Amino acid sequence: MNKSFIQLLPIFTLFLVGCSGLIETTQPSPILRTAGITTSSSQTLTPTATMTNTPNPTPWPTFSQEEAVQEITELMQTNAGCTQPCFWGINPNLNSFYEAQNFFDKFGGDWETGKSGLLNYHSPEIRFHKENMNIGIVLYEKGGDFRKMEVDLYGLDEINITNQDWLAFRPESILRAYGPPTYIRIFLGMGPTLPGQELKVGYTMIFIYEQQHFVVRYESVDMVTVINSKAHICPLNKNKLTHFRLWIGKDPVDLEEGGPELKEGISMTNSEFYDLLLGDPTRACFDANFNAYFK
Questions:
Q1: Non-local CB neighbours of 189 within 8 Å, separated by 6+ positions
Q2: CA-CA distance, 56 to 136, in Å (whole number)?
Q3: Number of other CB atoms surrounding residue 71 within 10 Å
Q4: Which of 108, 134, 184, 283 is the most buried (most CB within 10 A)?
Q5: Spatial separation of the C-alpha atoms in residues 168 and 257, rounded to whole Å
């Protein structure tokens, strides 16, 4: 695995076992155990449309609240029809920072700005109509050069949130849109367990598209009971995903190795896992070998 690409850190509060050297975070640094495998992915992806890369594009009209809700609802289902990794049609590798800033300005929210290392960050306020579902967007630039973008979707397991509310970013939609990832990684997280209690784990799935500088991460704190050293996980139906994070950009950080290969961790190859998630969602389940992660 190319260690110069990117490094990932689950944010849910679990005690995780394995990798070290994680990215800077305000939360305690957990230890991770992962399963990962490489696949060759040489496909060339072409964007459906690219905005003109002008330093100061003409401002878009600001949406009314009703228009913003309608626009966001559609974007969460279609992602602007991107055939190359993007969020709502924006990709730091294809768009300028000014274009991105101009695009998010039309939703009418305030901006939070600051410094993160050598980069400046800009976070627009996105007011969404779904109760308990939050969208966080951060744009990073250096001297006006659009370096990367991070997006978080929170509250995906809330009772009023349906698959349709974030259809474009669900695992099966990402895989269908962009094909097999360069790497697939699976993390298990074990919460505190008292004597006599059932052993339960949470999980994280990560898809890495190395050539496109694109990573998505899905987390679930819907704890799964370990039975006979196996955690039976159904990410598309039974065990609801809690949080989604997306990275696109030019400033990769290091991805630590560690943990079992995917075959050892869940007894599946990369292509089998890919096919599983694109098949019948009610049968898209796998068994994670607890002993392979927590030796």
A1: 10, 12, 14, 15, 16, 30, 201, 202, 203, 204
A2: 24
A3: 14
A4: 184
A5: 29
Q: What is the DSSP string of 250-261?
A: S---PPPP-S-B
CA distances from 41 to 14, 36, 217, 293 (A): 33, 15, 19, 27
Q: Report which residue type is found at 75.
A: L
Task: Using the CB atoms, write b or e for 6-42: b if 16+ within 10 Å.
Answer: bebbbbbebebbbbeebeeeeeeebebbbbbbbbebe
The CB density around residue 81, as the number of other CB atoms within 10 Å, is 13
Q: What's the N-to-C CA distance of the chain in angstroms? A: 23
Q: Which residue has 């999980």 as its token pair? A: 203
Angle value at C-alpha 293, between 290 and 295, nearest 5 degrees: 95
Output the tens digit of pLDDT for each of the chain's 295 residues: 544 444 444 333 343 443 322 223 333 323 233 344 333 333 333 343 333 344 455 555 677 878 888 899 999 999 999 988 999 999 999 999 999 999 999 887 789 999 998 999 999 988 666 777 889 999 999 999 999 999 999 999 888 899 999 999 999 999 999 999 998 989 898 877 777 788 899 999 999 998 999 999 999 988 899 999 999 999 998 888 999 999 999 865 545 456 688 899 999 998 999 999 999 999 999 999 999 998 7
Q: Which run of H or E residues covers position 271? A: helix 270-278
74: Cβ–Cβ under 8 A, 6 or more apart, which residues?
none
What tokens does 225 get?
Answer: 């009971």
CA dist 249 and 245 (Å) reads 13
